[in-house]
Amino acid sequence: MTGNFLIGLREGLEAVLLVVLLLAYLRKSGRTALIPRIFTGVAVAIAVSLGFGALLTFGPRGLTFEAQEAIGGGLSILAVGFVTWMVFWMAGASKTLASDLRGKVDGAAEGSGWALVLVAALAVGREGLETALFLWAATRATGETWQPLLGATLGILVAVGLGALLHRGVLRINLSKFFTWTGAALIVVAGGVLAYGIHDLQEAGILPGLHHLAFDVSHLIAPSGFLGTLLKGIFNFSPATTWIEAIAWVAYVVPVTILYFRKIHTHNGAKRATTPQPVSA
Q1: What is the 3-state secondary structure (H, E, C) of 195-211?
Q2: Considering the chain, what percentage of its residues have pLDDT values greater than 90?
Q3: 194: which residues sit within 8 A by CB, 6+ positions away?
Q4: Coil, helix or strand for 272?
Q5: Which helix (H) or strand (E) holds 257?
Q6: Closest CA to 4 of 257, 235, 180
Q7: 102 versus 128: which is more confidently predicted?
Q8: Strands (E), the chain
Q9: Cα(208)–Cα(198) distance, rounded to whole angstroms?
Q10: Where is pLDDT greater, at 85 or 271?
Q11: I need a labelling partner for 240 at 20 to 30 A (CA). Which of 19, 82, 119, 160 fits?
Q12: How confident is the model at residue 243 (pLDDT cuts 50, 70, 90)?
């Protein structure tokens, strides 16, 4: 549940910030009459994301167990790819995000005003589709029903609340640090989803080694116990992990984390280099 809360909070806040930027620019440029079209685009994006989530949830039903596991494993790995791209994209795109959005708004407003619906739908829809896919994969990994969905919903609601406070100027937070550390946490969560996806492919008979365990600490951490449930909900940790799962987790989390913080460091260094420095007399 905690991992899904983090996903909902992080992805939700990204989408909300995009909407806040769009609304702020329309107000500053005197185009308040076009604001309802932004909300129409957001509604379209939400509807498409929910439809995609429903397709992922109910689509594979009726298939054989092996087919369901193969689809689940493949989509879980795809979700990891998407969230990895998203984390790295956000680490480098924050500097030009606002100007890119303003350019799209200007182009849409100069043409058909209804093009703003498409701008908002695409801006929010991308986050929504990524969130739906990753939440679906994370929910499968935890093996729960309503708790992961509750966690994700709470995260999104908190994100909406934070976005509203930021929009009104009531709240100020260091978004750079927020996205830096939630991005790092998501890499760990994604590592667990990747390991679970690998396990699905093993159960489908696509990958070998289902019964070759790297470790089994089920006698110390019961899967249904409090600690096992907590570790499963936050890190998708399995007390009984195969060698391929363990290798995949390490091979993903360690290098991706190093590359991620290297990109953050490079981006921050470039940002400081382009910031005008005060000249002393």
Answers
A1: HHHHHHHHHCCCCCCCC
A2: 18
A3: 76, 77, 80, 248, 249, 252
A4: helix
A5: helix 243-273
A6: 235
A7: 128
A8: 213-216, 240-242
A9: 10
A10: 85
A11: 82
A12: very high
Q: How confident is the model over 245-257, as pLDDT tens digits?
A: 999 999 999 999 9
Q: Tokens at residue 204, please?
A: 């489908």
Q: What residues have CB less than 8 Å from 98, skipping those under 6 apart? A: 21, 25
146-168 and 226-235 helices, crossing angle to 10° = 50
**Going by C-beta distance under 8 Å and a sequence separation of 6 or more, which residues neighbour residue 16?**
159, 160, 162, 163
Tokens encoding 11: 């992805």
Please state, in angstroms and rounded to a whole number, the distance separating the CA atoms of residues 131 and 79. Answer: 9
Task: Name the pTM for this structure.
Answer: 0.75
**107, pLDDT greater than 80:** no
Greater pLDDT, 59 or 276: 59
Number of Cβ within 10 Å of residue 277's Cβ equals: 7
Question: In whole angstroms, what is the distance from residue 188 CA to residue 194 CA?
Answer: 10
Q: Angle at CA 3, nearest 5°, toward 201 and 151?
A: 115
